[in-house]
Amino acid sequence: xxxxxxxxxxxxxxxxxxxxxxxxxxxxxxxxxxxxxxxxxxxxxxxxxxxxxxxxxxxxxxxxxxxxxxxxxxxxxxxxxxxxxxxxxxxxxxxxxxxxxxxxxxxxxxxxxxxxxxxxxxxxxxxxxxxxxxxxxxxxxxxxxxxxxxxxxxxxxxxxxxxxxxxxxxxxxxxxxxxxxxxxxxxxxxxxxxxxxxxxxxxxxxxxxxxxxxxxxxxxxxxxxxxxxxxxxxxxxxxxxxxxxxxxxxxxxxxxxxxxxxxxxxxxxxxxxxxxxxxxxxxxxxxxxxxxxxxxxxxxxxxxxxxxxxxxxxxxxxxxxxxxxxxxxxxxxxxxxxxxxxxxxxxxxxxxxxxxxxxxxxxxxxxxxxxxxxxxxxxxxxxxxxxxxxxxxxxxxxxxxxxxxxxxxxxxx
Length: 413
Known about the structure:
The longest helix has 20 residues, at about 195-210. The protein has 13 helices and 18 strands. α1 crosses α2 (about 70-85) and α9 (about 285-295) runs parallel beside α11 (about 345-360). By secondary structure, it is α/β, with parallel strands linked by helices. The strands form six sheets. A six-stranded parallel sheet has the order 6-5-7-8-10-15, sandwiched between helices. Strands 1-2-4-3 form a four-stranded mixed sheet, covered by helices on one side. A two-stranded parallel ribbon has the order 9-18. It starts with a strand and ends with a helix. Helices cover about 40% and strands about 20% of the residues.
């Protein structure tokens, strides 16, 4: 690999590929390590040496073993200090010439600390800043409306930040905005191996950024991790996980990955396992909205009956989930909590409730399914003890509220 010139007079390269005779200064950063542990004095020395040559107008090449990570991190820091811009803006300049994802986060974070000492870019925010991923989803939208009353929020959309591929951009964003906590809701919902792989790739980037910046993480898991159990089960935090299907496997593997990072890096993480979340505007569970629409039109409502009985859900109203997240933020709770009502309601009884509330003429029938279904309720006693949380909206009242709101929405169309 030859010299990659970021600007006409500043480049990076692998040390063993530099020409024997040259007319430029060399800043050798091979005595830095490409992971955590670099002394601030050494990092500052390399950056300021580069800045010195830049101010004198001399051509300068920063080199390391491969010319990818340490050299480009130092070059970015030098550009930021030389131009008195943020490291994020300096990375935009690098991105035009190199693949910035080759830079490891650990040396880049060390560079960020030096840049912040030599520029006047960062500003303290009066409110604690929280970054939320998955802001366009039902939970993310509802959560942001409530959290903005208490915190300063950073809510990048998919178009603004690709969590799977823009790890460096995420790292720079949390540092620039002085993010104090990350709430990770952006999990692809799908049924393919690709969806599973994408979800874990995104999570790993989130974990790496959380770790290198010492930012606590809140991860929204779910009752899907117990979906392989077919007996009526009230699950607490010690119940063995047994996922069935891609959605459950994503959540279960995510929890395992988080536990590895906690043990290996000291990451502070909170896992919130909620039962099925519902409310006005939710896409899931789809059958509830379908039942309401059919009841409004007096169309037949068809439920399912499995070999082990009618399917049943522990329904958690969206406001109760948001209340739990806010309490975790305020109490700085770290650990795993199960969230739900502790009670199950069958799909057949949901259909009957909807028909009664709407005074519908729909006929409710049942189709037999030659398989077993899960019936998982969540034991919330630990959440009650640790963060003083318990559900305020139980299924009958929550469903009645949802029915009324859906009817009003239908009438307004």
